[in-house]
Amino acid sequence: MSYKFFRWSTSLMLALVISFAGFSPALAAPPNNDDFANAEAISTLPFSTVVDITEATQEASDPQICASLAKSVWYTFSPNENTLVTTVIQENIGFSVVNIFRGSGVSNLTFMTCQGNNSPYTFLATAGETYYFQIGTIPGFSGDIQVSLNQVPAPANDLFANAIDFGAAPGLADFEISGATLEDNEPSPSCMFGSPFFESVWYSFTPAETASLWAILSPAPFSPVMAVYSGTTLSTLTELGCGGSNQLITLHVESGQTYYFQIGSFFPELGKGSFQLTFPQPPIAGMFFFPSNPSVFDTLQFFDQSFDPGQAGFQSFTWDFGDGTTSTETNPNHKYAADGDYTIEHSATTTDGRIASTSQAIQVRTHDVSATKIETSNSSREGKNETITVTVTNSTAYTESVRVDLYKSVAGGGYEFIGTITQTIPASTKNDKDVKFIFQHRFTSSDAAVGKVVFRVVVGIENSNDAFPQDNERTSQVIQVKTKK
To answer: Were both Cys, which of 214, 235, 263, 387 would link to 280 (CB 3.0–4.6 Å)?
Structure first.
């Protein structure tokens, strides 16, 4: 090797050493959406991207919610219409998290949730709102993270025109409300109190025969409401019933006519549920009347006590009192003209046309006796026995056991009890209907001291009620009682 070549080689190597000794390689730049202010806008769904967060940073103003992030990137989404969205992140770096917010600025964010790797989260993105997604990791982890945002598809029966045929009753149908929308001109059920559904799905049902039906929503993990309609288009629907979970909707359906079931929720909710159509139990007719042992003097009050397990309620009632008279009132009054055994027929018809009937026997018995006369002397004296004769009349067709209580007036007012006589009075005939009850009473010095006495009798029927008790009492004439000489 020549000296000149050696010197040149040595100079070149020295120069390279000097050059490499002062070399500083350029660092990779952070992602474009590293900062909140530069969040990447998601304009259409579905959206999917892979982001390398190795060089991402963490701003001092970035929120720290579910983990102490060392680096993160940002995405934003503003839907033009209400959209059910599922977001998910996937990675193999060992740790990642997505924080989801709603708001308009980093200092004005409302935290919604945080999710880890491969943990989908579904929510309703409301038109006009802005949503932010912060994807990051903690110290010691770097690499690629896949970010996906997908719109949940609407159910097949989201639209009225696509209502699913329920099939035959009785039966059960499952529904999925997630992703459902609300059409223009869609009716608002009465049990929503003027507020429209947030979303809804539709079912149709065409019965093979005319019948009554129960429509029942089963309990669900959210708060569904169901309304039932007749009609053919959204603008011609007529509501037939409405209710929430476990509430019975009782319907009267006509063979061949199509009915529509609208199932929705008041809030933006997700979930599945079921409802059933079944044949209701028949109503149960019941009645009560008072008094229970009436006479021809009584006006009976009848009360309907019918019960409908279907909770449809009753629209009409009929009463047949068994004496040729009827009524359609709910709780009628009735008076029988003659004693006898009658059968009361009562029926109740529900609003959906189901009928229940019952009957009950009633006995009308008029027991009536009266104190028609009390006979005494005009005057007496101390120590003398006097006869008090009480005449009792039986004006009915029944033999009665009659009790007569006798009372005597006392000084200062009032009466004291003297005694009782009980006798049988036969049924009334033209010639034999009066019976005399004869009492004996010895006047005392107290009677003479007062100077006059009045007797009072009270008549009663043993083991029966007197139908007209107004004539069961009578007082005698005033008897002058003299002192014994």
So the answer is: 214
Between the alpha carbon of residue 249 and those of residues 212, 292, 352, the distances in Å are 10, 37, 11
- Other Cβ atoms closer than 10 A to 248: 18
Q: How far is the first Cα of the chain from the last one, in angstroms, to the nearest whole number? A: 190
Q: What is the largest CA-CA distance in the chain?
A: 192
Q: Which domain holds residue 359?
A: 287-364
CA angle 108, 111, 117 (to 5 degrees): 135
CA distances from 82 to 78, 350, 388, 409 (A): 10, 43, 100, 95
Which one of 131, 151, 171 terminates a domain? 151
260 Cβ neighbours under 8 A, 6+ residues apart: 160, 163, 202, 203, 204, 205, 228, 229, 230, 231, 237
Q: pLDDT tens digits, residue range 469-480?
A: 999 999 999 999
The percent of the chain in helix, strand and coil, each rounded to the nearest 5, is 10, 45, 45
Q: How far apart are CA 331 and CA 303, in angstroms?
A: 5
Total-model pTM: 0.58
